[in-house]
Amino acid sequence: MAALIDDALVIVLAGGAGERLYPLTKERAKPAVYFGGPYRIIDFALSNSINSGLRRIFIATQYKSLSLNRHIRMGWGIVSEELGEFVEILPPQKRVGEHWYQGTADAVYQNLYSIMRENPRRLVVLSGDHVYKMDYARMLRVHEERRAAVTLATIEIPVADSSRFGIVAIDEQERVVDFQEKPSTPPAIPGSPDLALASMGVYIFDTDVLVHALEADANQPTTHDFGKDIIPALIHSAPVYSYRFYDENKKAAKYWRDIGTLDAYFEANMDLCHVNPEFNLYDPEWPLRTYQPQAPPAKFVFAEVGRRCGQALDSVISPGCIVSGSSIFGSVLCPNVRVHSFCLIEQCIVMPGVRVGRHARIRRAIIDRDVLIPRGALIGYDAEEDRRRHTVTESGVVVVTTDDEPLIGPLTEEALQFEAEADRRGGGG
Description:
The protein is of the alpha/beta class. It contains 11 helices and 30 strands. The strands form 6 sheets. Strands 17, 18, 20, 21, 23, 25, 27, 28, 29 and 30 form a 10-stranded mixed beta sheet that branches. Strands 1, 4, 5, 6, 8, 9, 10, 11 and 12 form a 9-stranded mixed beta sheet that branches. It has a 5-stranded parallel beta sheet with strand order 14-19-22-24-26, with no helix packed on it.
C-alpha cells in the first residue's frame, strides 16, 4: 500500500468559473466558496487526499483565484517538503500554446511538464468542487488489483436523475463499456434496472496511458474534457474500470454532492444544521482540514429572555462570531460575523465579515462576504422587492451581495421604545 501511495500524484482541478453559483462566484472561483462555516469547497478533496496518505498534490487554478491561492497558502502548509511532500498551485503558464485551460483534460495536458518531473506511476485526478468523503488509497488498491489503465469512481443514482450526470455503462466485471454525458436514455446497472452509475469526477490513470491520450486529444478539435473526450476514447483501447464509491461518511446513504447551483448549495448547508445531518463534520477519524482564522470563540450576549436574548438554535456558528441580543435559527454563520440586537435570522448562510444592523429580519437567504446589512433590513419577506433588489433562486432563496440595497422595513413605536429601554439599561450591542 505504501508503494502505491508513494508512486501516485494528485492533481485537483480547481479552475472552474462556477457560473451557476453566481453571484457567489463573482469575485472567487467555485472551489473557494465557503461551505459549512469555516470550510471552503476545495477543502473536502484536499482533506480526502491527506487522509488517504497522498501528500504530493498539485492544484490547477485559473478563474479569479486570488482568494483560493491565499486560502491554500495559509491553510494547507501542513506537509513536509523535506520528505518530498507538497501542496502546490499550478496557474496557467502557456507552456504548450497561447491559450488558457480549454477543458479539464487540457488543464492536465498543459501541466504535464510539472507532473512528469515528479515521475508518478499513477495520476489521481480530482474535481475541486464536490463535497464528499473518500479514501483514494482504497481506490488505488482496486486499480492495481484489476490491472486497470483507468479507474473511474462512480455512484449509484436513480435512472430518472441521469440527465444531470456523466453515466457509465459496465459489464459484469465492472469494466466500462460506454460513457455518455447527460444521456436522455441512460444505461442501467446490470441487475438493477432502476439505477445508473454516475461518474464522480474522480479518476486514476496509469501515467503513460494518460500522457498518450492527452497528446492525441490535444491535436484534435475536441472540448478537451475527460468525460466527453478522454474516457470515451480510452474505453476501446485500454482496460477502463468502474470503482463503486465507498463512503467514509459512515451514514446509511452515500453522500456525494455537486453543489453546482445556488439551491443545491443552500440545501447542503441547511442539512448541516439538523440534529443528525447527512454529512458528518464531526468524525475525528476523518478530520476535515481548513484554514482557521485567528479568531476568538463565538459569543452570545444579553440573556434577557423574552426581551433581548442572544441565542442560536439548530445552527452552525464559527469562531469570531458575536450574536448580541438576537435570535438565530437553523443557520450557518461563517467566521467573524457580528449580529447586533433585535434581529431575527432564520435559515440563512452568512459569510465571513458580515455585519447585521439592529432590527434586521432575514430568512432563507445567503449573505455574501463583508456585506453590511442596514438597520431594519427586511430580506426574504417581500418576494417582489427581493427580486427587484437581489438575486433570487428558483426556490426563493435570496442572495445578498455588497452591491445590493436591501429593503428597509418600518419599525413600530413599540420596537423603538423597547430599544430605548434596553439602551438605558446599558450594554450597547
